[in-house]
Automatic annotation (TrEMBL):
The keyword Cytoplasm does not apply. Keywords: DNA-binding. This is DNA-binding transcriptional regulator, Lrp family. GO terms for molecular function: DNA binding. Residues 65-138 form the Transcription regulator AsnC/Lrp ligand binding domain. It comes from Eubacterium oxidoreducens. InterPro entries: Dimeric_a/b-barrel (IPR011008), HTH-Siroheme_Decarb (IPR050684), Tscrpt_reg_AsnC-like (IPR019888), Tscrpt_reg_AsnC/Lrp_C (IPR019887), WH-like_DNA-bd_sf (IPR036388), WH_DNA-bd_sf (IPR036390).
Length: 160
């Protein structure tokens, strides 16, 4: 039951739990109780709204920053990851495989603001060896939702 509930609310956190109970063929009270337990256990960590900022006219710049660090003795990557995720500019921090150790996702108002964050805050941390900033130019799909609109064929149809 847990996995089915999580699968549905991950795709649509606004789904009515009574409606979800009907879809799953489970008692509504059982669904409500299970969701509450998962919130208390921090399995469900929050509910988010996805916004296509390009359509709002509000300027936002998103970047993915690859960070190479020296892990600290006895703490590995956890201590430096915590220092990074405590910055309010930071949306996400992931430990990754490959050439870099951490992937940091941030948003700012301008390219300069993001660049200044990287150069004055992130790059100056003691354990950080190097960074590489990748600005997101366009989002086509985010969290499983397609944001790109399909191009409409504007050619005229001609029949003979």
């Amino acid at each position: 039951m847990r996995e089915k509930i999580l699968t549905f609310i991950e795709k649509n956190s606004r789904i009515d739990l009574g409606e979800l109970a009907v879809v799953l063929g489970i008692d509504e009270e059982a669904v409500l109780n299970e969701v509450q337990r998962m919130e208390e256990e921090h399995i469900i960590c929050g509910y988010h709204t996805m916004i296509d900022w390009e359509k709002t006219g509000i300027e936002k710049v998103s970047a993915l920053i690859e960070v190479r660090v020296t892990p600290q003795r006895g703490q590995g990557f956890d201590h430096i990851a915590e220092r990074i995720y405590n910055y309010p500019e930071v949306d996400s921090v992931f430990l990754i495989s490959g050439s870099f150790d951490l992937l940091v996702s941030i948003e700012g108002k301008t390219l300069r603001e993001v660049s200044q964050f990287v150069s004055s805050k992130l790059s100056t941390l003691e354990s950080v060896l190097s960074t590489q900033t990748n600005f997101i130019l366009r989002k086509y799909k985010d969290h499983g939702t397609v944001l790109a609109e399909k191009n409409k064929d504007e050619r005229m149809q001609i029949t003979l």
